[in-house]
Write a structure and sequence with these properties.
There is one protein chain. The protein is an alpha+beta fold and about 425 residues long. It folds into two domains: about 250 residues, FAD/NAD(P)-binding domain (3-Layer(bba) Sandwich); about 150 residues, Helicase, Ruva Protein, domain 3. It has eleven helices and 19 strands. A six-stranded antiparallel β-barrel has the order 12-15-14-13-16-17. The protein has a five-stranded parallel β-sheet with strand order 6-2-1-10-19, with helices on one face. A hairpin with a 5-residue loop joins strand 7 and strand 8. The longest helix has 17 residues. It is elongated and about 90 Å long. The termini are close together. The mean pLDDT is about 95.
Length: about 425
């Protein structure tokens, strides 16, 4: 008789786990409460799906502020190279873009999601859509016995020798990630690290930000001040929005910003260096050259070579230099003020957006209670966890999906058949 396995959740980690388990010869039933598989994958990367990252696998752990050390073994057992080969074998050709980010050649997240579903189904796994798992039952000796699910008003029980929980976190609840797995894990005695938003946009106090909503800046440096002293800096790309800031470096910084906001009970100060490639002396020389080149122009018309057009009136206003002042009349003190503004444009973070706007969830099932090699619970025999339900999360750039694939693979291989 075949070993019976129930996978809860048909997302990235759940479909990978189901496919590899079924490939090994087990009878696999996947319970998915939504009407389709991999809903979050389908909208990831703005619909393009950043599958993984092409950087050396040894550099991956440092890109997980949430328990990167726990993932060390999993990332090596199913690496980024394995991931790319896996999708190539499923007919999904890939390409590498800026920041070593790996995308499907088609730029279509649906292609990735459909390939994952075909992989699971192709090896014999059965996916039960609109089936919401509500309870994981245990036998008298404490081992998992099966999963009770609701399909409409009808209850069904799926007997299982092993159960894999791959329900995701709390981010993007419209895709089905509503914390179901966390509740079930807690009811079975697992400690849950309080979920909080990670990779989430940030609100700012400055009203001028609304005027440049939609503007993206590359190669800038964002420095955030720790209310208790110290600071952290992030280099890369950001985007202004009507509510504040978003983009890769803001998303990466957001979890720390959230912690500091909570600790301080008030706003967090930050500074944006618009020209980090230049030191103070080099930028001052650049300003002098531009002001000399446009010596007969008004100040408001002299910054076109230095800044994006929509940002110029903001900088002019914040500098305090009269916009109609002719450039050759600008004083050394005024130039020094402008220099400081370009190197440290002040921003005030007031709060992060809510969990519903977060790309991933920080927090989840405490990884101290999970075997990092097999993803099996140390508390309940036959119970496995993979993906975002675990207290694991990475920065932007393909690291979170790679964690999902790697943990899903390890869970599949960890089951004794």
């Amino acid at each position: 008789m075949k070993t019976k396995v129930v996978v809860i959740g048909a997302g990235a980690s759940g479909l990978v786990a189901a496919g590899f388990i079924a490939q090994r010869g087990a009878s696999v039933h996947v319970l998915e409460k939504m009407q389709r598989s991999a809903s979050k994958v389908r909208i990831s990367g703005k619909g393009r799906c950043n599958i993984t990252n092409a950087m050396p696998i040894r550099d991956f752990p440092s890109n997980y502020p949430g328990n990167g050390r726990f993932l060390y073994g999993a990332l090596n057992r199913f690496s980024n190279e394995d991931c790319i080969e896996f999708f190539e074998s499923l007919g999904v050709k890939t390409k590498v873009e800026r920041g070593q980010r790996v995308f499907p050649l088609s730029d279509d997240a649906h292609e990735v999601a459909n390939a994952l579903e075909r992989f699971a189904l192709g090896h014999g796994a059965k996916i039960h859509f609109e089936h919401k798992a509500v309870d994981i039952r245990q036998s008298e000796d404490g081992r998992v016995q099966g999963v009770e699910a609701l399909s409409g008003a009808r209850k069904e029980f799926f007997e299982a020798d092993y159960v894999v929980v791959a329900t995701g976190g709390l981010s993007y609840p419209g895709t089905g990630s509503t914390g179901d797995g966390l509740g079930m894990a807690e009811s079975l005695g697992h400690r849950i690290v309080t979920p909080r938003p990670a990779l989430v946009p940030v609100r700012v106090e400055e009203e001028w930000v609304k005027e440049v909503s939609g503007l993206s800046l590359r190669n800038v440096e964002l420095t955030i001040l720790d209310p208790s002293g110290g600071q952290q800096s992030f280099f890369g790309e950001l985007m202004f929005a009507h509510f504040g800031l978003t983009g890769p470096i803001v998303l990466t910084a957001s979890e720390q910003v959230g912690r500091w906001l909570e600790q301080s009970g008030g706003p967090v100060r930050a500074y944006l260096n618009l020209k980090p490639a230049l030191n103070e002396e080099q930028l001052d020389k650049r300003l002098l050259r531009d002001l000399e080149t446009f010596s007969r122009k008004q100040f408001r018309n002299a910054l076109d070579d230095l800044l994006p057009k929509s940002l110029i009136p903001i900088i002019v206003d914040l500098s305090g230099i009269p916009p109609h002042k002719v450039c050759h009349q600008i004083t050394r003190e005024e130039r020094a003020t402008l220099l400081k503004l370009l190197m440290a444009l002040p921003l005030t973070f007031t709060k992060t957006l809510p969990m519903t706007a977060a790309i991933v969830t920080a927090g989840g099932v405490d990884v101290k209670e999970i075997d990092p090699k097999t993803m099996e619970s140390k508390k309940v025999k036959g119970l496995f966890f993979c993906g975002e339900v675990l207290d694991v999360h990475g920065v932007t750039g393909g690291f979170n999906l790679q964690a999902a694939f790697s943990t899903g693979y390890c869970a599949a291989q960890g089951i004794e058949l």
